[in-house]
Design goal:
Elements lengths: L5 E7 L2 H10 L1 E5 L11 E6 L9 E15 H4 L12 E7 L3 E8 L8 E5 H6 L12 H12 L4 E7 L6 E9 L2 E5 L8 H16 L1
Parallel strand pairs: 1-3
Antiparallel strand pairs: 1-7, 2-5, 3-4, 4-5, 4-6, 8-9, 9-10
Length: 206
Amino acid sequence: MYPEDRVLVAYLPRPSDFAIVQNEGWYRIPQQFAPKGLYAEYFAFYFGRHFGAEKWAIHYFASNLGHELTTRLALFPDEPEHPRAQDWYYKVQLGPLQRLERPILSLRWRRVTFIHTTWDRFTNAVEINDLFIDGDVFVDRLYAALKERGIQAERNYRVGEPGPAYEVALAVFGEHGRIDITATEIPQTPDKINALADKITAMSQS
């Protein structure tokens, strides 16, 4: 395990999907939705709403042993009439499943499909937003500055109202609504980033 090893966090919507990971040692991804991180050294699993007390969190991970492209019918031969039986899927072979000593929580419900991160971030993360690496370095700095002030920002937050959905770099939820911050609004010097963090903190608490 190296700090720069890649970790792909994948969404598991149902306990039946996790049962396959547990009992058969593989995970499936539809080819049309496959992320760029299939070659990550590790896969981790984010539980959806059907997991009871363990929902909206990452509890387990496993090493990635490789993948193959196959049909859904080959994966589930007892379901020949399934509407996606002939669709192509990546079957990811996994090493032994390992449970985290401390789960990585989502402090605010959010739908996660895939998150790319690194081993050092994964092992140090307290909550989901600590994992993101695909943002600008200045997004990282503002996120950290807000966290130092006790403000929890949501990274890569998907906004869907009103009109077409889009994504903002950071979203802060205050008593009187949500503050959206795009990457272009974030300055590129430490003093200005701190000034913006102070402004957002004041706005979220007013």
